[in-house]
Design brief:
single chain, 95 residues, mainly alpha, 434 Repressor (Amino-terminal Domain)
Amino acid sequence: MNKLNEYIVRRNKRNPNFAKLVEQENINLEVAIKVRDLRESMGMSQRTFAELVGKPQSTIARIEHGTMNASTRVLSEIAQATNQRLTIQFSPNFN
């Protein structure tokens, strides 16, 4: 177990919701990276990408900064507008 996981286990003992918060932040970060990579691979600014997907630029910025819990609906809209297929995957969590 690495030091980060040990810290999460210790904090979770004091606050049972801590591990859930960490997991949500990890998901937000993964989504942020995927959306930014997609946008950059298309050679688009956030504003142009936002126009393509029909969302405000501020929404794209919040997704890319990991500060928004992007719903599957929003991610599906992004996928459809960019001719991508949205896939969701469950993986084992090895703490």
